[in-house]
Structures are given as C-alpha cells and as structure tokens.
Specification:
Shape: globular
Helix content: 10-25%
Distance between the termini: 26 Å
Number of strands: 5
Radius of gyration: 11 Å
Strand content: 25-35%
Structural class: alpha+beta
Number of helices: 2
C-alpha cells in the first residue's frame, strides 16, 4: 500500500469530538506537494466524513495502491 506521505494523529477539537490532524508531511510527498501542513484537520476523504473517526480508520481511507487518487478536505 501507499499513503499520502503524512504523519497523522487524533486530538480533541473545540467541541470535544475526536478529530484527525496532520502532524507532519514528508519532503516531496503528495501531502507536501499539495500544501498540507501541521494542524490541518482532515474532515473528509473521497466524499466520506472523517469527523469523529479514530486516526487508524482515517489512515485506511488514505492508503491505496501506488497512483491512487485521494481527495482530502481539511480545515
């Protein structure tokens, strides 16, 4: 499998719900080239809400075969 090239993790957001945030991106990775950065909250992947999902589940939505496209919505 391949991913977007980012480290992600859970943190509670302002309303107390668990949300997944970008912790870091790897130099030259798809996430880095797309401009993702520390603190971006991942709210949707390929049209599926990620709000309230644990990061391990979100991570599975971000993985796929090499060349797989993932549309990610962040706040």
């Amino acid at each position: 499998y391949f991913g977007i090239g980012a480290t992600i993790g859970d943190l509670p957001d302002a309303d107390g719900k668990r949300s997944t945030y970008v912790k870091a991106t790897f130099e030259g990775s798809p996430a880095n080239r797309a401009g993702l950065r520390y603190g971006d909250k991942i709210v949707e992947v390929n049209g599926t809400s990620m709000v309230g999902k644990p990061f391990a589940e979100v991570r599975n939505f971000l993985r796929g075969a090499r060349g797989t496209t993932a549309k990610i919505t962040v706040e």
